[in-house]
Amino acid sequence: MVVAAEVDVPGRGVLLVQASGLEIGLFRVRGRVVAWRNHCPHQAAPVCRGRVTGTLLPSAVAEYRPGRDGEVLQCPWHGWEFDLLDGHHLASGSRVRLRGYPVEVEDGNVVLHLPERPALDAAGRGAATRPRP
Questions:
Q1: What pLDDT shows up at residue 59?
Q2: Integer Cα distance of 11 and 33 in angstroms
Q3: Angle at 104 between CA 12 and CA 38, to 5 degrees
Q4: Torsions phi, psi of 42, nearest 5?
Q5: Spatial separation of the C-alpha atoms in residues 103 and 41, rounded to whole Å
Q6: Does position 40 have pLDDT exceeding 80, yes or no?
Q7: How far is CA 111 from CA 4, 11, 26, 71, 105, in A?
Q8: What is the mean pLDDT of the chain?
Q9: Quick one: which of 22, 29, 37, 75 is 20 to 30 A from 89 by CA?
Q10: What gap in Å lies between CA 55 and CA 81, rounded to an integer?
Q11: Do 21 and 8 form a contact (C-beta atoms < 8 A)?
């Protein structure tokens, strides 16, 4: 589904779009467009409204080396940092990540590929759910 014109995605920062009832943040990182759900896995903050920044690289004690400028999204509520290229939380050993969606740029448009949602029955359960005996 086309969600935006490529020229509307800023060089730094976010373009928020609505798609199938979800708020999605579109970012331009290293010249390509990436899409992340606007939902922090920590406490459901609107993560895409956070700052696009860099982070400190691993270094010796008392040595501070900034890097990855424009590749890190910082959650506005608690400062959790996420890699905008792959969605991973930057804390050492963390397995947490943002929910991302594939995007393509076709004829100047950003095309977002969302997974199909399963059909729901009258009770709001997925079609594969069987009634309890």
A1: 84
A2: 10
A3: 50
A4: -75, -65
A5: 21
A6: yes
A7: 8, 18, 11, 21, 6
A8: 89
A9: 22
A10: 8
A11: no
| The pair of three-digit structure tokens given for residue 78, joined into one six-digit string | 């608690």
Residues 6+ apart with CB under 8 A from 30: 71, 85
Predicted TM-score of the model (pTM):
0.82
Nearest to 42 by CA among 103, 97, 1, 3: 97
pLDDT at 25 over 70: yes
Measured distance between the N- and C-terminal CA atoms of the chain, rounded to whole angstroms: 40
pLDDT of 37 higher than 50: yes
Dihedral pair phi/psi, residue 111, rounded to 5°: -105, 120
Q: Which two tokens stand for residue 44?
A: 């459901």
Which residue in this structure is represented by tokens 């910082």?
74
Q: How confident is the model at residue 118 (pLDDT cuts 50, 70, 90)?
A: low
The token pair at 96 is 């947490």
80 burial type by CB count under 10 A (0-12 exposed, 13-18 middle, 19+ buried): buried
Mean pLDDT to the nearest integer, 40-66 = 92
Tokens in use for 118? 């399963």
Instruction: Please state, in angstroms and rounded to a whole number, the distance separating the CA atoms of residues 9 and 17.
Output: 10
